[in-house]
């Protein structure tokens, strides 16, 4: 049960009406508070609390303030004893709560099938909705064991309807292709490969993910085949299939096995495509970042500014004038030094070459030596679309890469 209640929600959900407050006079302070809490709790949840711990402290304090007693008055209240049971029966009579008979059970099952379960609530949310249904319809809730069996039966019927709906959309060829996933081809079942983790990013893992995508695309399942089903239902069935091996799935009857495979394969295909797109972005980013880092390191290494260039120029000019017919190694190097001239040349080249051009050259070299084995395969596995003319050159470039895959250029 919810334990934290904002002030405005306390007023909205836990305030007693004047008619309800009129029922309290004549009771001891502890009995007043216990009766009021049980009444408010039943109106909110459709059942009674088993003990004080089931009621949030903020709720106890809010109800106690309405009837003007201290919360300590609840310490001696006998929830499961004669007083508590008598108060519960009185509350049921006041609210005109009817027993959970056959008609009520039929209405409850219909509500589960048509409203509650199609929304795929989690267990806690479903429990709260069930309590609200009993309170709203003023029907006594059955015991916990019977209620759990009713909900489990309704959920099983709901799942059965979902299976039959999906199975009815599969033609004989689609059924054959799905069953082929579970057959052992000598290297294991294809379904087992679909379940495998991709592992560390690299050429082998990339090729493995592309192979999985090809297996799933070969099934030719319509992406709209699960359109009418709640996303949480799809996730629940997919988690179920992910924990079963191929031999376990083969043991299910056709009307369960084939829909389960559909519930797994359709989102799995989308997941693999998303993973390949992330990989494409990562590879592109990695190529660019590494190239830029390498070029910057080279530029820093090359760009060592040679100090005193004016003095060096004067000494070189003086030596050349004094020995115009001399040899460079004998006339120039003694006054400036060969390493000084090499540093001057590097400084000029570093400052005179465009950085983006060098980055582009590094990217080409990196792509040609390593990433060429990965990127064309990745681009071939993905399908790119855009109705924006601005992106047309990029799509043309991708088409050019695809068309030249096998030419080694």
Portion in strands: under 5%
Whole-number count of domains: 4
End-to-end span in angstroms? 67 Å
Task: Indicate the radius of gyration in whole angstroms.
Answer: 38 Å
SSE order, one letter for each helix or strand: HHHHHHHHHHHHHHHHHHHHH
Give the proportion of residues in helices. Answer: 55-70%
- Mean pLDDT reading: 83
Shape: elongated
Structural class: mainly alpha
The largest sheet, given as strand count, sense and whether it forms a barrel, is: none
User: Tally the helices: what do you get?
Assistant: 21
Uncertain residue ranges = none
Number of beta strands: 0
Descriptive keywords:
mainly alpha, 4 domains, elongated, about 400 residues
Q: How would you characterize this protein structure?
A:
It is built from 21 helices and no strands. It is an all-alpha fold and 409 residues long. The chain has 4 domains: 7-94, no CATH class; 102-167, no CATH class; 172-280, no CATH class; 281-407, no CATH class. The model has no long low-confidence stretch (mean pLDDT 83).
């Amino acid at each position: 049960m919810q334990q934290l209640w904002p002030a405005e929600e306390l007023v909205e959900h836990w305030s007693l009406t004047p008619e309800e407050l009129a029922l309290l006079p004549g009771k001891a302070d502890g009995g007043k508070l216990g009766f009021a809490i049980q009444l408010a709790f039943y109106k909110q949840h459709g059942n009674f609390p088993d003990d004080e711990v089931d009621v949030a402290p903020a709720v106890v304090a809010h109800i106690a303030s309405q009837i003007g007693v201290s919360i300590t008055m609840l310490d001696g209240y006998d929830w499961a004893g004669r007083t508590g049971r008598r108060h519960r029966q009185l509350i049921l009579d006041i609210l005109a709560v009817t027993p959970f008979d056959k008609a009520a059970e039929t209405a409850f099952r219909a509500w589960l099938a048509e409203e509650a379960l199609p929304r795929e609530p989690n267990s806690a949310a479903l429990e709260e909705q069930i309590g609200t249904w009993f309170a709203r319809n003023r029907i006594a809730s059955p015991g916990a064991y019977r209620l759990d069996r009713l909900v489990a039966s309704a959920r099983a019927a709901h799942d059965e309807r979902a299976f039959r709906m999906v199975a009815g959309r599969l033609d004989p060829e689609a059924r054959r292709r799905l069953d082929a996933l579970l057959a052992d081809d000598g290297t294991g079942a294809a379904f087992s490969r679909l379940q495998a983790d991709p592992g560390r990013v690299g050429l082998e893992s990339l090729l493995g993910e592309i192979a999985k995508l090809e297996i799933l695309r070969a099934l030719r399942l319509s992406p709209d085949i699960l359109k009418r089903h709640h996303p949480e239902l799809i996730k629940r069935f997919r988690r179920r299939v992910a924990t079963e091996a191929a031999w376990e799935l083969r043991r299910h009857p056709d009307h369960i096995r084939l829909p389960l495979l559909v519930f797994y394969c359709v989102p799995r295909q989308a997941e693999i495509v998303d993973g390949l797109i992330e990989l494409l972005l990562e590879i592109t980013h990695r190529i660019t970042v590494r190239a830029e880092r390498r070029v910057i390191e080279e530029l820093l290494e090359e760009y060592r500014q040679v100090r005193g260039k004016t003095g060096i120029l004067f000494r070189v000019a003086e030596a050349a004038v004094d020995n115009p017919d001399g040899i460079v190694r004998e006339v120039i190097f003694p006054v400036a030094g060969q390493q000084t001239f090499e540093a001057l040349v590097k400084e000029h080249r570093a400052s005179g070459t465009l950085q983006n051009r060098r980055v582009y050259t590094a990217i080409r070299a990196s792509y040609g030596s390593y990433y060429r084995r990965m990127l064309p395969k990745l681009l071939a596995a993905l399908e790119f679309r855009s109705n924006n003319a601005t992106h047309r050159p990029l799509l043309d470039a991708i088409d050019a890469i695809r068309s030249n895959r096998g030419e080694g250029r």
